[in-house]
Amino acid sequence: MDSALIPKGVERCSLKRFLLGQAIVGAVVLWGVYAMILCWMKGLNQTNMNDSFGFALWIWADLAVIAVGGGAFFTGLLRYVIGLKDLKNIINYAVLIGVCCYGSALLILAIDIGQPLRGWFIFWHANVHSMLTEVAFCLSLYMAVLIIEYIPLLLENRQVDKIPFFHNLSHNMHVVMAVFAATGAFLSCFHQGSLGGVSGVLFGRPFAFREGIFIWPWTFFLFTWSAAACGPCFTILVTKITEKITNKKLVKDNVIDLLAKISGWMICSYIIAKTIDTLYWAFVTAPHAGFNVMDFYDDNFWAHGIWILIMEIVICGYIPAIILLREKTRQNQKLLWTAAILATIGICLNRWVLVMQPMSMPVMTFDEWVLYLPSWQEIATTILPIAGGIMVIAFSYRYLPIFPQEQELNPVED
Amino acid sequence: MKKEHDKVNKKYGMVVDLDKCTGCGSCMVACMSENNVPFKEDESNKLDSITWMRVYKVSNKKPYPNNEVFYIPRPCQHCGGQHEGHSPCVSVCPATATDYDYTTGIVSQVYTRCFGCRYCMAACPYHARYFNWWDPVWPDGMEKYLSPNVSPRMRGIVEKCSFCFHRYQVAMEEVYGSDDKEALEEGDYQTACTQACPAGAITFGDLNDETHAVHKLKDDKNAFRLLERLGTNTKIYYISEREWVRRAGDNYNPGEKTGSVKYKTEGH
């Protein structure tokens, strides 16, 4: 029924099957929308946040999706600015994933603030000293850049492309895309960094606080670096999942291999820098504030134990770096999957720790650890944009030529 | 602007004698009443109850008969930060909804500008900032007894101790009527908690004014501030003759003497 909209030379499942899949994901979206409406109508008392946990699941989700969405800006930088032509075969998907991630972040932020109708105050009454102000400006601008990068893809739909104006617009946008990619990379460096700065500048919270250069704490640089390192791994992971679901090879191995290799070097350099930062924090910064580093982990083992640090740096840092650096291991599909999953978990864990642990741990000597478990409304609204992202990806895959190599890799017999 | 900041201004602060505090909670009640602080039917969950002034009970955790406790009233500490005005919360607020007043040293909250991001709460190590998880609901008739000088806050924004700033405004109005516009006597501006304390444990005034009691008290050999080594540079001083009480005010590494570690700040 919708065959006229499907790109030429590729196969798609039946419309019935597609809509059934969308309906299942759509039900999850509706559940999330219901929770979102509850939060907007009744307020944040619908959550399990409290005065100790002012930042909680949503802020973590924001940081995590923006981090894994970093594949968009870094792949764009590699493709358009540095000129790695092979990456043209995955850049569309990286941008699409970026759109979903950043759209998710903005939606969650809109639910997270206590007075959503005053959200624009962050621009109108901007405090230039606040990292969050920088986040708001760069995030909004980068979202606009991502949409500009996504528009030519939309215009390549078979029916839209027939209209000369849209055909030419799409072509011309592709021509100037390097400018937007460079702008996106510039903006991303700042908002990824300022998200790191959000926790790094908290000098009243010894777990989060880091020294740095001028106004930027070390977390500023580590966040940008880690997003550039692990973001491409997430792009690879989602590509691989898409290939599994569609039961098709969509991107050639040499493209994945190139991105995985670059990601491996980035993770390797990042995790060394992160290790140095952690050692300095443990042996200089924490004692300066009167803490032994184990004070930061000395409570409920499963919620706040030291395992979380080992997991983040060793298991989800060094292991994927080693796998991706060696050609032999990188080209082993099982190990590639493992590395991509570990790197994605690692970066999410890093964001988790920097949001949750500073809120949990007592700073005053007579204070106590606080344990937080999100409410169903928080969980539903966090899943909402993920489910929405799946729907957007499914629609885009079905009706747009996202993967330039799909036709060649999956020839259709007439 | 720089010159304005450098001018010798008032620095309102508080000195609390912990050896006098009995933990009766009068300061908390007075604060809630004075500032129209909303409350719920069930206030047992202190993680979502608003208490601008909160009294903590602290034990030395020793078994009987060596067990001792002290009570510590904790309002907003009105941090000055490492350089005046760089309070943990003021510097992070994205919408300039929390402000450092250089003429008084008071950290204020602009309720109509706060959009409820709660970054200031994440920044405050004293848990002195509270979010309005609900709209305030007053028992029937109680709205008639609300303090007319303090606006009640709506759901979705952050609030905290203001050092009863409305009282400062009222006092200043009186002074503006006189010939000497700078003359604000110690008794002209006092916070509700100070006046309510039956033990006289709380002293409030201008830390920069030699005629005010707090100016001398803050230099007491047993005076200390909470989490001083973090560089928050607070305006609440505590006094206790008991060493373990003073030690409870900050975090120490093994071998460090109580009060030995101070963060160098532009103090008072």
Throw out a few tags for this protein.
heterodimer; A: 414 residues; mainly alpha; Formate dehydrogenase/DMSO reductase fold; two-stranded antiparallel sheet; 2 strands; 1% strand; globular; B: 268 residues; alpha+beta; Alpha-Beta Plaits; four-stranded mixed sheet; two-stranded antiparallel ribbon; 8 helices; 10 strands; 19% helix
Q: In a nutshell, what does this entry contain?
A:
Helices cover 71% and strands 1% of the residues of chain A.
Largest interface: A-B, 51 and 57 residues
Q: What structural category do the secondary elements of chain A indicate? A: mainly alpha
Question: Given the structure, what is the number of helices of chain A?
Answer: 17
Please report the total strand number of chain B as a whole number: 10
What Rg of chain B, in angstroms, do the CA atoms define? 19 Å
What helical percentage do the residues of chain A reach? over 70%
> N-to-C terminal Cα separation of chain A, in Å?
18 Å
Query: What CATH architecture label of chain B applies?
Result: 2-Layer Sandwich
CATH class of chain B: Alpha Beta
Report the structural category of chain B.
alpha+beta
Strand content of chain B: 15-25%
Can you characterise this structure?
The complex is a heterodimer of chains A (414) and B (268). By secondary structure, chain A is an all-alpha fold. Chain A has a single domain (3-402), classed as Formate dehydrogenase/DMSO reductase domain (Formate dehydrogenase/DMSO reductase fold, Up-down Bundle), CATH 1.20.1630. Chain A is built from 17 helices and 2 strands. Chain A has helices at residues 15-42, 57-68, 70-81, 88-112, 121-124, 131-155, 158-161, 164-175, 177-200, 218-246, 253-288, 301-304, 307-325, 327-330, 333-360, 376-399, 406-409; strands at residues 212-213, 216-217. Chain A has a two-stranded antiparallel ribbon with strand order 1-2. In chain A, strand 1 and strand 2 (216-217) form a beta hairpin. In chain A, helix 4 (88-112) packs antiparallel against helix 16 (376-399). The radius of gyration of chain A is 22 Å and the shape is globular. Chain A starts with 14 loop residues before the first helix and ends in a 5-residue tail after the last helix. The mean pLDDT of chain A is 94. With 268 residues, chain B is of the alpha+beta class. Chain B has one domain (2-247): Alpha-Beta Plaits, CATH 3.30.70.20. Chain B has helices at 2-6, 26-34, 88-92, 119-123, 165-176, 192-196, 213-217, 243-247, and strands at 12-17, 54-59, 69-74, 98-100, 107-109, 129-131, 158-160, 202-206, 223-224, 236-239. In chain B, the strands form 4 sheets. In chain B, strands 8-1-10-9 form a 4-stranded mixed beta sheet. Chain B is globular. The model of chain B has no long low-confidence stretch (mean pLDDT 92). The interface between A and B is large, with 51 and 57 residues.
